[in-house]
């Protein structure tokens, strides 16, 4: 995927997210919501610096996904998800992410390895 200037994209993404509505006070609801959200875009970060696939479909499959929860947070408040991919080659990609509260506290770290396959 290349930018409009013909340069590859950087293997970095940032996104803000939060759960819709208000979640119950039980921290388990917040952990589960963030665990779900953490998998939505992370592995796609590995594709950003690579050439176009000429319109062919790419299949992605998670091989491993790990999370570390550092401190309490609320998933129904805005969270910043910073993602990067330091390595992608040989049909495998590695990505990691950090999730911060709006006031800048690191609350979750994420790592994921995935398999990438371009369909003919």
Automatic annotation (TrEMBL):
Any Pfam family the entry gives: Acyl_CoA_thio
InterPro entries found in the cross-reference section: Acyl_CoA_thio (IPR003703), HotDog_dom_sf (IPR029069), TesB_C (IPR025652)
Any GO BP: acyl-CoA metabolic process
EC number: 3.1.2.27
Residue ranges occupied by any Acyl-CoA thioesterase 2 C-terminal domain in the UniProt entry: 6-115
Domain of life, source organism: Bacteria
Keyword Disulfide bond: no
Top class in the EC scheme: hydrolase
Gene Ontology MF annotations: choloyl-CoA hydrolase activity; fatty acyl-CoA hydrolase activity
Keyword set, alphabetical order: Hydrolase
Keyword Hydrolase tagged: yes
PANTHER family the UniProt entry points to: ACYL-COA THIOESTERASE (PTHR11066), ACYL-COENZYME A THIOESTERASE 8 (PTHR11066:SF34)
Protein name: Choloyl-CoA hydrolase
Organism: Candidatus Protofrankia californiensis
């Amino acid at each position: 995927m290349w930018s409009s200037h013909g340069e590859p994209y950087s293997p970095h993404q940032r996104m803000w997210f939060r759960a819709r509505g208000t979640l119950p006070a039980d921290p388990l609801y917040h952990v589960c919501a963030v665990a779900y959200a953490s998998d939505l875009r992370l592995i796609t970060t590995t594709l950003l610096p690579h050439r176009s696939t000429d319109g062919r479909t790419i299949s992605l499959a998670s091989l491993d996904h790990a999370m570390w929860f550092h401190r309490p947070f609320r998933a129904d408040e805005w969270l910043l998800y910073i993602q990067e991919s330091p390595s992608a080659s040989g049909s495998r990609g590695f990505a990691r992410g950090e999730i911060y509260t709006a006031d800048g506290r690191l609350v979750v770290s994420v790592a994921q390895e995935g398999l990438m396959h371009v369909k003919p």
